[in-house]
Design brief:
This protein is of the alpha/beta class. It has one domain: Metallo-beta-lactamase, Chain A (4-Layer Sandwich), CATH 3.60.15. Helix content is 25%, strand content 19%. It contains 8 helices and 14 strands. The strands form 2 sheets. A 7-stranded mixed β-sheet has the order 6-5-4-3-2-1-14. A 7-stranded mixed β-sheet has the order 7-8-9-10-11-12-13, covered by helices on one side. The chain starts with a helix and ends with a strand.
């Protein structure tokens, strides 16, 4: 009996050691730079000092989870190949799924947080599985000039997709502070980091501005909040587009609206929000997304971050249902849309 207990103890220690080793190995290099109002020299902070839940809360959530129903969908046909180029005076946004969008504006083809992998994970045999195929096949993408990465979580920075984009298109990757080191490590040559409110002119017809978001970062055990997270504003001749990335709700959106709005279009997350006691510091609910639409003065908003990867406890269709209720509550019936994968909307 003592031998069995000893063997079990050794086995547990082995698995703990392996897990720690993997977690250490997945961790990215920590950003080094001067302290600011949202960086203390070691870690980045949210506006208003909002913090994601700690390890004990994670364990409580995992133990008490009440998962909604998800069903894998594999028989949907991809959307038609997007046009190669859009006039400089127009804006078209195509929903791929999750937070991956093709924005064609200012004569530039832009991808946001692209992920074509089967799983949002460092490994393709374990981790959150894609429940719906991408709305556009990777091989049908037009020439991609620019890729925006909002932060380094696996469902927003997918190494497989990033490598494929680099090999095929060699676009410019615009990322938050501390993320370019990882991209260079996996073979990306052309990157530019932005701090909150920092600007980058891509062309005569396109300027990109990094905006605050309420979230966190990390790919391993040792790099929590060691790189920045953000949203992006795209200024074009046809109007401004706002991509919120991944975020919780706060006063910062009224500030973004006042500073950079109004917006011709906004891409706002609506999923991974249940249970709200756990998720609300890092993910907005559909109702909060509707409030962001109003805060930032958006003419038309497009839903993102839902229905693809089961990251929280709401069921597969709940985010869309709750958004419909919020749209009715705030009178946004025609102003906030949920696109089918592969579909697009012309803003101008």
């Amino acid at each position: 009996m003592k031998r069995m207990i000893l063997a079990l103890f050794i086995l547990i220690l082995f698995f703990v050691a392996v897990s720690l080793s993997i977690g250490w190995g997945l961790s990215t290099r920590k950003y080094e730079g001067p302290a600011t109002d949202h960086f203390d020299g070691k870690r980045f902070r949210n506006p208003g000092s909002v913090e994601a839940k700690k390890f004990a809360d994670v364990m409580k959530w995992m133990i008490d989870r009440e998962k909604g129903e998800w069903k894998e969908v594999v028989d949907t046909a991809p959307g038609n190949p997007p046009i190669a180029e859009l006039d400089e005076g127009r804006i078209r946004i195509t929903f791929i799924n999750h937070s991956s969008m093709l924005i064609q504006a200012g004569g530039v083809n832009i991808l946001t947080d692209p992920i074509w992998s089967l799983r949002a994970s460092p490994f393709q045999w374990i981790g959150p599985k894609r429940m719906r195929p991408p709305g556009i096949r990777f091989e049908d993408l037009p020439e991609i000039h620019l890729t925006l990465i909002s932060h380094n979580h696996y469902d927003h920075l997918d190494a497989n997709t990033v490598r494929a984009l680099e090999e095929k298109f060699r676009p410019l990757f615009i990322v938050p502070l501390g993320v370019s080191d990882y991209l260079k490590k996996i073979g990306v040559a052309n990157t530019r980091e932005l701090d909150w409110h920092e600007k980058r002119r891509f062309s005569e017809n396109l300027e990109i501005i990094s905006t605050p978001a309420i979230h966190f970062s990390g790919r391993g055990l040792m790099d929590r909040d060691a790189s920045l997270w953000c949203g992006f504003v795209l200024k074009t001749p046809a109007g401004s587009v706002y991509f919120a990335g991944d975020t919780g709700y706060g006063d910062v959106f009224k500030e973004i609206g006042e500073k950079y709005g109004p917006f011709a279009a906004a891409i706002l997350p609506i999923g991974a929000y249940k249970p709200q006691w756990f998720m609300s510091p890092i993910h907005v609910s559909p109702e909060e997304a509707a409030r962001i639409h109003l805060d930032i003065k958006s003419e038309k908003s497009i839903a993102a971050h839902f229905g693809c990867f089961p990251l929280a406890d709401e069921g597969m269709g709940e985010a869309g249902e709750d958004l419909e209720k919020a749209k009715s509550k705030y009178g946004l019936e025609n102003d906030f849309v949920v696109l089918k994968e592969g579909d697009y909307i012309d803003i101008r």
